[in-house]
Prior knowledge:
The structure is a homodimer.
Chain A: H1 8-12, E1 16-18, H2 21-30, E2 38-41, H3 44-54, E3 58-63, E4 76-80, H4 83-100, E5 105-110, E6 116-125, E7 129-136, H5 141-144, E8 147-151, H6 156-164, H7 183-199, E9 203-214, E10 217-220, E11 223-228, H8 244-248, E12 252-256, H9 265-275, E13 281-285, E14 291-292, E15 295-298, E16 310-313, H10 320-329, E17 334-337, H11 347-363, E18 366-368, E19 375-377, E20 382-383, E21 394-401, H12 409-417, E22 422-427, H13 436-445, E23 451-456, H14 462-475, E24 478-482, H15 496-500, H16 503-513, E25 517-519, H17 524-527, E26 543-547, H18 550-564, H19 573-581, E27 593-594, H20 596-602, H21 604-616, E28 623-630, H22 640-648, E29 656-660, H23 662-672, E30 679-680, H24 685-700
Parallel strand pairs in A: 12-13, 12-16, 13-15, 16-17, 17-18, 21-22, 21-23, 23-24, 24-25, 26-27, 26-28, 28-29, 29-30
Antiparallel strand pairs in A: 1-11, 2-5, 3-4, 3-5, 6-7, 6-9, 7-8, 9-10, 9-11, 14-15, 19-20, 19-22
Helix pairs in contact in A: 3-4, 6-7, 10-11, 13-14, 19-21, 20-21
Amino acid sequence: MNSAGEPVEAALSRAAGQLSEYQSKRLLAEYGIPVVDEILAEKREDVLQAAVDLGWPVVLKYCSSQLTHKTEQGLIALNLNNPEELKEAFERLSSLAAETGLEGAFLVQRFIRGDRELVAGLIRDPLFGPCIMFGLGGIMTEALGDVTFRVAPFSRAQAEQLLQELRSAKILGEFRGQPAVDREILIETLMGLGRIGLDHPEIKELDINPLVIREGRPVAVDALVILDREVPKEADRGVRTEGLGALFEPRSVAVIGATAKEGKAGNDVIKNILANGYRGDLHLVNPKGGRIMGRRVAASIEDLPDGIDQAIIILPAQANPDAIRACAAKGIKAVVLAAGGFAEVDENGSSLQEELARAVTETGIRALGPNTSGHTSTPHNFTSSFFPLGRLPKGPISYIAQTGNFATHTMRSIMSTEYYGVARVIGLGNKIDFDETDALAYLAQDRETKAIFCYLESLARPRLFLETAAEVTKKKPVVMLKGGSSEDGARAAVAHTAALASDRRIMDAALRQVGIVQIHEYSHLILAAKALVRMPPPRGNRVAFLAPSGAMLVALTDLCRLKLGLTVPRVEERTRARLQEISPSYIRMRNPVDIWPAAAVSGVEFAYREGMKAVLEDPNIDAVVPVLMMTDETGVPDLTFILDLADTHPDKPIYITFSGEKKHMDAARDFLEPHGVPTYPLIEQPFEVLSILARCRGAMER
Amino acid sequence: MNSAGEPVEAALSRAAGQLSEYQSKRLLAEYGIPVVDEILAEKREDVLQAAVDLGWPVVLKYCSSQLTHKTEQGLIALNLNNPEELKEAFERLSSLAAETGLEGAFLVQRFIRGDRELVAGLIRDPLFGPCIMFGLGGIMTEALGDVTFRVAPFSRAQAEQLLQELRSAKILGEFRGQPAVDREILIETLMGLGRIGLDHPEIKELDINPLVIREGRPVAVDALVILDREVPKEADRGVRTEGLGALFEPRSVAVIGATAKEGKAGNDVIKNILANGYRGDLHLVNPKGGRIMGRRVAASIEDLPDGIDQAIIILPAQANPDAIRACAAKGIKAVVLAAGGFAEVDENGSSLQEELARAVTETGIRALGPNTSGHTSTPHNFTSSFFPLGRLPKGPISYIAQTGNFATHTMRSIMSTEYYGVARVIGLGNKIDFDETDALAYLAQDRETKAIFCYLESLARPRLFLETAAEVTKKKPVVMLKGGSSEDGARAAVAHTAALASDRRIMDAALRQVGIVQIHEYSHLILAAKALVRMPPPRGNRVAFLAPSGAMLVALTDLCRLKLGLTVPRVEERTRARLQEISPSYIRMRNPVDIWPAAAVSGVEFAYREGMKAVLEDPNIDAVVPVLMMTDETGVPDLTFILDLADTHPDKPIYITFSGEKKHMDAARDFLEPHGVPTYPLIEQPFEVLSILARCRGAMER
């Protein structure tokens, strides 16, 4: 037997190239994936005997570990019904194979006439490593692009969920008189592919195309395994928790590069620390010595006392490596590196950053940055931010930001527009040490953090990040805006799986898999955050809403159903009866609630209060949104009743929006938001937020 | 020859049922649609001769005008290569056909092994009449649902555009070594289907499935025509322009049901008319006579002078029909019917509405309503609104609203939050006479109206509406929120075309086809409107933007590309050089523009002014959005430069958004918006608006 049939282990041990179709399926079979009945043969008589053994009709294929496109090369003959047809096909394929010069043998298969064609596969993603793919197969696989991914390993529940993600998932059900696909076998197939990916780092790509469905049973009819030993492996450094106390709850802090000059970072950082009421020891370092804001200044790091927790280093880029070493020598546990001019700029900067990273590794110090805008820890009354922010409002929201915005203008926007506060805000900068995975792990156990919002453009340790996130998202909402997702890396594609795997698709699948809720609008980092200050995420996606307008009811119902994945369910008869009771009889009440007639008859406050109460008490409802009518003519109610309703229904979020006059809407916001009842100027916004947070709750309860 | 082969005209003349496959394809062929070579035969010898005439291999099908699912019934044999196979198939189908008892004959076809399968069809939509369908065919047609629609008739350009709308449009190009599909033949096929739909009202559905592609040429391999004479036909009443002057520019107006009682509609309407500075004659009618606000009151309609233009009737529902007759008798040309309690309420109301409609038809008077919230015509200083609104701001935006909101709380919201004004605002009410088509026709020729925004839940005369819209949208932007689109009517489906045709899909296609830009958020009726007050819609979808944050640049670029259909193109080298000139050298400038470094070095005003100027002058850019940084620390610029840039670049819209402190953002809005430069609090909003208005411009220039 030639290389087409050499043992799988031997074939896998080769450095590159691919397995033959036969070998590929042997490997699949080893992992419990059902493959078509087939026999490898070289001689005509063996081929004929194989057909007899398998039963007619058969398929004859040429099989070689050098062959990728046998259909295009004519090296396949389908539906052979008798020895004559098989012999003819054998002669034709023999002479074609001879022309190609490929080394191989013949593969005789039972001919399976399936009723559906699927595709499944494995790809080694540069970020996440082994990922499996599943979707619609056949000749249109790539044209349709209806596939979905998972990073291995994954749970059975994840495999089950994956099957529901296809646009055309209904073909897995009963289809044109054929039974539903055996989901158990499909799941076993997908999990087998995942195990192959984990067990065999030498496999770069694996395609099962088609995975044919016959009478409900999936069978791998063709398969291709591509090898590559040169797969980069992620560094396995784990989450380090030491030094994080020094970073977020420092008992003592030194500002290296402190200055008396107004408007300089080395001055503003001191003001920020003082403005936030920091209670630990504050040391200042400047070669000139003297005093700044009345405080004595040390001339060098060496002059500092031993055992300071944290140093904020505000020095030119080149001075940073030495400063780190000096800090470490004095027993400083963590540094914040404010300087830019490293890898984000040019190659010189990259070299400098490598030197910096060496200093950090050698000393074992914890480092945030470089190129960070600093971090904030309001429970500890501390910030290392050097943009003049003043006192930051305290609250339960934490941000992990691969941008300086949350220490500059975006934070200013939050502080001046919103009524919520923050717990920890982390500007990651260039991430030579402390990265988003460390941040996530820290915030997971942080009692002051109720919800985590991230803006990230890259992942320093992608697999570790996913592992960490998978745990965190069970405890707290994690919402992420992933920047840069429109720039898909072009991939050299041999197999379907690779052709269909884009950076964005795999990232989307990976985040979903670990319960991170992805958003696509920067503003939602703020709009969704304020909904979590006092209230939990909604238990599900079932919303009731009240509006003073049929048009708004209709338009918002459309939006919920068509775009946001929310349902507007029927309420219980008891609820409906109560709604009817408060309303004139000419309108038949239901959810969504047309509150205008009730408001016209009984006043705005009565109508909204009783209407909201009714739907809040309904077990089919997870969240309630009133569109408050606010005009002089229709009456502007005292909104205390909303605070009361929020108190008595702490399990169901209430988000407020408006229609009417700006002055009343502004006043309502200023009254409600300090009490943790979020308000939104546009009527769509509360629903967008519900859509995000219902997904968070789903992740927490998975 | 039995009914399977009776002449097409004879078959079509039957009242119901369907055509046989053979007849269906004869009809297609008459309309220039390529069909497979085939011969109808009854006897075995004729079948064999047919195969010889057509050439091997062939397909044998049983053909009957009573047969719909021949594959499921086994009445088809593919790929018959010789007389033996054909004879065997003939015997098998003969006995199967005998079992079914169907009357029919045998259809012998050339066997076409295609490389792609498409589907095309025709459906008679209850709203729009004949609509064609096109998409991905084969056994997965319905599972994939990748189809698109057009209302017949449609232009060649529309047919061409339709081909680009499929998700998997790339299969029409070169595919797996096969040439691209002949688009000319495809277009002829689609237009032929459209003509069939227009010529044959008795055809209810028509399926071509599959439309097989072989070597780039489409061929109808199977077809099914379903007949139904009972298709409802739209009343053909055309657009009536008489009386519209009396409605929108009345020289004299009577309020029937005027009252001195504060807070009543019959009082508020008078106040509104006076508040808006109406200059025509104002008459009041109330049985009590006397005076209201110092004006003499007539005791009855009969007591009014002759020849008044318009009457606003604010009377109980039951009194309306008589009032209309009385108005008509006095020569009043148009009435506004404020009362509710008609078809929107119950069956009694429906009867009353029918009586009302009779009064309108008999008298020939023009009527707005009933159940209308009135209308507004600011160029004429007039309103019939009876919700206390005061003086409405004048401007170029007109609204057609199937809701009272634009005469009540939504208008209040606009008046108190926004700086733009309106021209005509029409609350359609129950549309017994004046409807959205009349409104569109009126606004099309209205010099005061620059852009039309609609909220509609139904179309009174759907085909006429489309015809009218097709012309209007070439002149002015028409933006529509179509309410109720998530409640798809369930359709009894025999054919694929019907199974795939949902109300929403056809509505979406119809609106797109005539250049109406559909939106899905109520708030966009306001956010998009204010962008058109001073500026034109953007010439295309190419946007440049400037932001003080890499994260915002990345997140907004993703949003533009992935969700909004906008491009963020490369700028010319000259533009790039200018951007580089104003910026520190460490950052390489491009579009989108990172303006923070330039602002840090040269100040916010200089950086934004010069940056915006550079991209505004670039021929690759259609619109410019700066995210203005507004904090005390970074400096708050004098924004006069933005007005100057808007003056010097009147062809390119500039929309403003912000990051920073609320007080500065509010001040900027209050400064810029009165000059027609729109501002948006959230950074995503200007891009959402650009996406909408670029589509409007595309429609205008189609």
